[in-house]
Design a protein that fits this description.
Elements (H helix, E strand, L loop, with lengths): L1 H19 L7 H23 L8 H4 L1 H25 L4 H4 L5 H14 L7 H11 L4 H20 L17
Helix pairs in contact: 2-4, 2-6, 2-8
Protein name: YpeB-like protein with protease inhibitory function
Keywords: Signal
Organism: Sphingomonas yabuuchiae
Length: 174
């Protein structure tokens, strides 16, 4: 029951504010921290979705050491990610984010939204990208993701037809 109360409180505080946050934005490093926190679960879920289409040697399918590296980086990034979430929402949420349930809850809400957009025909490409980027430190991988999102956001602003999440990324170069 405590978890259900946390879900309701987080949804009530975060969802409306993030959707309409015109006054607040997150910087590149803040977006990278949020990306790092979600990355282990994104990789795990992508492996589940794409597993049957990938060879047994696939990093996504096997997970193991790759996901362990990202879990460690996610732990280190959590304080900065929490601060970014508070920045985008009501300061009262800071207390809720201190709960042990907050991080798994947030990633469980976010990850299906992201991974649910994966077309099975894209699994091979995703696997190649992860394999090529795997030697990078997790923070660099998060930087690549955020830079790609910033680029797509700029292209969308120029009128190009691109699918990009409506994230409140600051445009001042941070």
């Amino acid at each position: 029951m405590k978890r259900l109360g946390l879900i309701v409180a987080l949804a009530a505080l975060v969802a409306p504010e993030v959707a309409t946050a015109q006054r607040a934005c997150i910087t590149g490093p803040e977006a990278e921290a949020m990306t790092l926190v979600a990355m282990p679960d994104i990789l795990r879920e992508t492996g589940r979705v794409c597993g049957a289409r990938l060879p047994a040697s696939s990093l996504i399918r096997g997970g193991g050491s790759l996901i362990s590296r990202y879990e460690s980086a996610a732990d280190q990034a959590w304080p900065a990610a929490k601060a970014a979430i508070v920045k985008l929402s009501d300061p009262a949420i800071d207390t809720l984010l201190q709960s042990d349930y907050a991080r798994p809850l947030l990633t469980s809400l976010l990850v299906p939204f992201i991974v649910g957009r994966i077309g099975l025909e894209d699994c091979g490409t995703i696997d190649r990208l992860v394999t090529q980027l795997a030697p990078l430190p997790p923070r660099n991988m998060a930087g690549v993701v955020v830079t790609a999102l910033q680029y797509l956001k700029t292209e969308k602003a120029r009128g190009r037809q691109v699918a990009v999440p409506d994230l409140p990324l600051c445009t001042n170069g941070n």
